[in-house]
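Quarterly update, task 2.4: 1-O-alpha-D-glucopyranosyl-D-fructose-bound model.
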Amino acid sequence: MNKKWWHDKIAYQIYPKSFLDTNGDGIGDLRGIISKLDYLKDLGIDIIWLSPIYKSPFVDQGYDIADYYSIAEEFGTMEEFDELLDEAKKRDMHIVMDLVANHCSDQHEWFRKALADPEGEYADYFYFVKGKDGKEPSNLRGYFGGSIWEPVPGTDRYYLHMFAKEQPDLNWENPKMRRDLYDMINWWLEKGLAGFRIDAIINIKKTPEFKSYEPDGPDGMVFCTKMVEEAQGIGEFLQELKRETFDKYDAFTVGEVFNMKEDELREFIGEEGHFSTMFDFSAHSLTFGEHGWYDAKPIEFTSWRDTLLKSQKDVESIGFMANIIENHDEPRGVSRYLPEHAQNDAGKKMLATTSILLRGIPFVFQGQEIGMENCRRSDISEYNDINTLDQYQLAMDAGCTKEEALQCCYENSRDNARTPMQWSDGPNGGFTTGTPWLAMNPNFTEINVEDQLNRPDSVLSYYKKLISLRKSEEYKEIFTYGSVEPAFTDLPGIFAYWRVDEETGRKILVAGNFGNQPQELRLEASAQDNPETVLLLSNDESVAYRDLILTLKPCQCAVISV
Ligand code: TEU
Ligand code: CA
């Protein structure tokens, strides 16, 4: 495998609106990000991905872009952005932005021109499609509920939107539109951006005829992924995109890819793949309900572990996945993946260990490093996220009680990860001197950066140790390129794997006990009788490792080099 500059890097996702507010308007800003670069450097971060900071009406929190060339004034100015680039560069850190190219905002100039002249050039930047028998062209339901079709006023046409109606889809079949996007992407890369996280990209390819399908719900509609799965030929767009932009700058790209067709992994992230890497959503997908959050499935330990390990195997000979336990669209990983008895600091460190030491590019989401948790709300009005409002209604329509519907939101809402960063136990967790745009998780008094910074046994201190182990001169190679061999899969509750350097024969065992019984891991068999073993890291000083036997009590984890 050809080595690339980003292979051994650690990435961190910032959700700017909720990171740090410096002017008291309750909204995080670029100044806040700049002021925390040292904090991130100290944590061991190399690459920072910023969720969208472009000008936007924020119907979908900035994933609805009104101008790709300007910074939302809520966040600051282009000068401040340039300063962020400079300051990051000084610290040898790389900035990656969100590329939202499946759709823009209905406030974007292109869409406004299209509406003003539905026969004109800009109408073809979107999908303006004639209705059938006075109705929508097809019966597809969008990601946020309702039809994907919205009437174009004063015409017999509809425009397509896979997400909110304020997010019209861009027509990638139009070469002029694609050219405009490429120019914009190159403009940012020219500024010194290291690359992009590529939003919702699988949706850019549509089927040529917009047909209807067998309904999958009482609304007579069918989920829009039905069309996505049938669409052929996305690769041509993605290769052109890469050739015209990323390739010229050796940019780092990470795709948000759902519903990829089987056997397409190599095309997406192989040596000549469309992207550098893509997120591994295999574990996350385990909870998908048939209809929505109200019938989401709980995580079952063994299938979760096996899914992750299988995904590691699938990608090994092809490229690198980007590993996450959470992001701005997901509930907090510690609330989702840790069994009840392990929802404590020890458990959080254990989950960090088994996740960060997998093969791939680790992405830490803001607040993950201090163990931030899901947030309980007592009424739907306390939520902001458009997706949550839709899913709550869906649950109520399906007969859930208010309590049940709120429980679905507690477990699944995107707002769980979007509550402001907890910097201290002071007013508003040190996030703002004003009123936070989204209410804080009240547990900031217990879980916050200030408390954890200088406490050696904190989750944050552990993250630092873990990341510096992964990046240490001695172990960098094996943690970056070593293969992954599942281990002790027959011991209940044990998530363990070997990282193996095929050339030197060096092996490192990573193991955590997610079960509620102590377990003995006997190393001889797998360690090939090599007594020269070293305990590199554990989340508990009492972890017992003697005579090639590692004993792990519930919530204990260890990393052992052989
Ligand atoms: O998400 C795209 C996406 O398909 C899912 O993550 C999912 O549809 C959504 O979270 C509902 O559960 C990306 C962004 O990450 C998300 O924040 C945006 O809302 C969406 O694209 C539209 O730009
Ligand atoms: Ca602000």
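Highlight for this quarter: The mean pLDDT is 96.
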